[in-house]
Amino acid sequence: MTVLIISFTNLRSRWFVLGTMLGAVCLSVGGCTRKHYRTQADCDVEAIYQEKRAEEAWNLPRLPGIQVDPRSRFFDPSPEDCPALPPPEPRLHGYTLPQLATGDPRQSVDLAADESADLESVDETTEPEETRGESNPDTTPQPELIPAGDRPELIDPGLIDPDAQGTAEQSQIGAHQPIIVPPYSEFKSVAPSSSDPSSAGKPKQVGAATPSVGTMPVADSFVQQTSAVQLVAPDAADGGQPAAELAVNEDAAAEQVDAPEELALPADSEAVDSDSLGQLLQNAPSADADDATSSEPAVADDERLEDSDAQPTGGLRIVPIPPEYWGRIPQTCIPRMLEFESVREEFRRSYPNATDAEIEPMLSDAPRLTLPNVMELTLINSREYQTRKEILYRVALRLTRERYDFWLRPTRRGNGTALNYTHSRFRGLTNNRLAIPTNAAVTQTLCTGGQFLASFANSVVLTFNGPQGFAADVGSELLFDFQQSLLQRDIVFESLTQAERDVIYAARDLIRYRRELFVDMAGRYYNLLLTYRAIEISSQDYFSNLRAFLQGRAEYLKAGRIPRIQVDQFEQNALRSQSSLVGDCNRLETSLDRLKLAIGLPPEMPLNISLSELEALTTSDELTVTRQLVQRTKTSLLETTAGRWSERDSVVNGATVLVDRLMDTLRVRNEVSGIDEVTDEQRAATQLESILALIESRLQADQLDAIRRRELSGDLPPEPMIRFARTVDLIDAKLAQAEAAIGLRALMRQVESAESDLRDPDAVPADPVKDEGLEQLSQQVETYNRELDQWIRQWETAIEKRRLDELETLSKRGDPLLQQVDRLDREAAGDLLPDQEGEMDELIAKTVKEIVDLVDQVAGSDVGGLDEVDIDDDEAMLTALVQRYDLMNQRGDLADARRQIKLAADDLRSIIDIRATHILRTRSDVNRAFDFTFDDSETRLSFALDTPLNRRIERNAYRTALINYNAARRALIDQEDQIKFSIRERLRQLRLRRTQYEIAVASAALAYERVVSTRLQLQLAVGNVVARDFLEAQQDFTGALNSVAREHINFILERIDLFLAMEAIRLDPNGYWEGVDDEQLELPLRPPFLEANPNPYGRLAPCLMYSDEIRSLH
């Protein structure tokens, strides 16, 4: 502030001077506004941020300010410079998710949309929608067949048929009739085998595999298939039934199927609350209540299923979970379970009339966050992150103060004026005096470490009623002072030097904290996905064990087929799996609340996470596990061909299993790669599958023909029943062979057409379905099938009406039909199959070789699985040592400690100061405030020396500085070693995780086959398998599935940790690292050391005259 003082001798200007002084005083008293100071501080700090980024351009991204995002939970809408206190009343649900740049999390699961999208992927072999689609409210849902999509076991019906155990031919027939358990995606509704005598000797017709309706992760399909089939021990009285028929207990199946009733779901689209959901499940009928009425529905169910011409006869079926057991699950757990399509399928079986639109409100309607959503919300609401930004801001504010000392600035105090009025009376004399002292001063710390001071002092004394009347005394003084320390100037620079370096340290700490925050949130997110995965696996494990318990109880109560102890074991395992499921749901809720706290959201806020990432991970796992199954099947097939080549049936069946699993692998590989078109490998596998189906039908027909010839050519005339049954079996097998041949020819035409299109895209392709020859053959097959059905009905009618004298004639009516079918079979097969036995072996060997070659070709693909950890340890360690921010700060600390040695050594020396002062005054004979003259001035020069006679404290400080430097040097070495160790340890853990993942995949594949094997052996009472063996296999399988998911996610997290340890994570503005989606393990390019560390030991403040020793350190 400048105060203008003029001589009061000019009375005309007196009022002008007073007015000017009054205005200046008002301006000085008011000062600037709060907003001005706040915005000025923000501008200064932002300028420092930009400057430091320019100095460390390779390392530092844009530094964030401390302004709170308006979308934040702790954003204060009140004025920043005069904030209002928040309302003291507690509030719940006071915050809603804002709009996010990373996507809208307010998306619900659209079941109808998902189903329609999935149905588009069903190929032409899928049965019509009316045969498998919407349930009829007036009918019970049809059970589902387990078709020939996968063949883990080959079981001979002769093993369970007492009359066939001694017949080698009958045992060989069973080799072509395996009981199979396919992936879940291949289940389709079929009618179970009836007790119709016409089907007693009929070969099992396995329906065409239905493609996957929706993307089913590996654990979904494997757990589904291990939980879907009942466990039934064979009855001695039913020993002559087919093997597949023995797997279904009619009473228990009807009891389970008829239990579901219409689900009374709310009509509106709002989410169902816990009370309504509990009431809904509690009103469901219990399984025990249906026991008394289970027999009649079973008969009706069989009759209804027998009338379904669209479904093949025979097979296993999925029994719905009784609604009573849904009610026993905690209400908070059901919405979490229904997140998965596999569990929704179970729910639809229990409530067949429930549509997707009715199930959708039962799902959680909370916002579903992806990992980018989580990171964006964390940067918006994290209180810890805001605190870290404020720490950096405070450090930068300190630097602004230190820099200000080196500017020419007004002094903090002593710049102003005063009015001192004195009224005195002495011996009756009155004296009134007005004194107006005014001072203004500026100072600056110079680049040499000296101090400069310039001050102006003005004194105005007005005397009223004095001896001389009115008198004025006006005088001013100018002071210029310079002081310089000769030996300790580095000490003067130290505050600024350390403040400059502290900003860099704090900026690096903030950037690394953001990366560590991402790693922490990613770990929480992926662990939540793992918990979700555990819920799905535990749900299917619970369903599997519950089915085993219900089936065992039914068998124990109604037939006494199994001992009570096995029923208790089943029940104990069901309770264990239910407890595990409930625990997983509770653990999920706790993890979600912890995630909210880490983000900064209120714990009561409804929140969910998107499962799209989990679906991608499980699809990748499915590909890896299916590949493992393919390799295991291939190894088994090669062992079979090498050791038992004469057993053609086993070779063909093993090759069929291998092709089926290869088809699954190719399907999942296309899903992972995002390929919608049919690949060449899929075409080749489909053709090989058709060739195997033709060979298998040929082998089965030849075996049935040999059995028929032997039984009809005996010494005694054959019984009409035997002639009829063997003729029906043979006709049916030959018709199946003709159908397989027609299908193979149609497929070959399609391949030829596709190759023709590649050669000549403009050519009009021929439709193989419209081919006249194939069309005619297909019509003949349909005609002969109708004739066969008519003949069977005539036989059944004669049996029912007890016209036994007609059986002899009826049994011979099939001979002409057999001859016609035989001619059709030869015409359809033609040159596809050889006539000689040796040529058949050559065809089988050729087909097996082509399959093995195709498997090797697919196995060499780089799609799916986890990358090899082929990383050089030394290169990874060097990359970390070059780029780590904490190591850079540690180097800076070492330089700071070294600089303290120099400063402490300076204190040991003498203190030599020089000082120069000059004072100018106004003339004393005139009252002029600015009339300075050298005639009235003063100059002072001084030299001060403080000898180091007593430096005990400084000596101790110096020795301490030396110790601190050595400690800092050891700390740097330790930090480097810790970084090297962390890199090596993370690489070891990464390799371990990959190995553990491969082991888990192999264990899952083995456990899958073990579950299937033990279940079938338990069903057929083969060997010494008991319920405990199946339960142990089921537990091992569940654990293996959990291990696959856990090891995959652990591998991802270890990879993220490795990249963090190498400081290779680069975040986008929303705090997300895009490299998390790429599971490759390629090391980032290591920059040259001086590019990544342009100032290894930090920078000094510019324009300061440091000593040579200090400059040499930096």
UniProtKB/TrEMBL annotation:
Record region (Disordered): 70-215, 234-257, 284-317
GO MF entries: efflux transmembrane transporter activity
Low complexity composition-biased segments: 188-204, 234-255
Residue stretches of biased makeup (Acidic residues): 112-128, 288-309
InterPro entries in the record: MdtP/NodT-like (IPR010131)
PANTHER family per UniProt: BLR4455 PROTEIN, OUTER MEMBRANE CATION EFFLUX PROTEIN
Protein name: Outer membrane efflux protein
Species for this entry: Crateriforma conspicua
